[in-house]
């Protein structure tokens, strides 16, 4: 039986290829392919993780700029993964904001950085 994480990782690879293997046919995401991918696959998630007073387009551009480590104007798969980690980190941080701070989760960010849910 496949785990949720295994399915999520496989999905990330498949989504990347669906957008990266468009025109031009290469294994990279241009800024426009990256934007299209996030808008079509994760717009509600992005709206909830974008910093306050930041539009989705501005947030996508910020993510692209942070992820484009070699500054070649396109993202290879490893750079795309770093983008997913940035979005996941933003989502995690925002899950601790608001009333109650942790939305009912028993998080422990002590010295071991472990999580208890």
Task: Please identify the structural class as seen in this structure.
Answer: mainly alpha
C-alpha geometry = globular
**Strand arrangement, major sheet:** 1-2
**What is the number of E strands?**
2
Average of pLDDT:
83
Percent in helix = 55-70%
Please tally the helical runs, counting DSSP H or I stretches of 4 or more residues: 4
Radius of gyration: 16 Å
Order of helices and strands: HEHHEH
- Termini separation comes to 23 Å
* Uncertain residue segments: 101-117
Summary?
57% of the residues lie in helices and 3% in strands. It has 117 residues and is mainly alpha-helical.
Description of the structure:
The protein is mainly α. The chain has four helices and two strands. The chain has helices at 4-20, 31-49, 56-67, 77-95; strands spanning 29-30, 74-75. A two-stranded antiparallel sheet has the order 1-2. It is globular. The chain starts with a helix and ends in a 22-residue tail after the last helix.
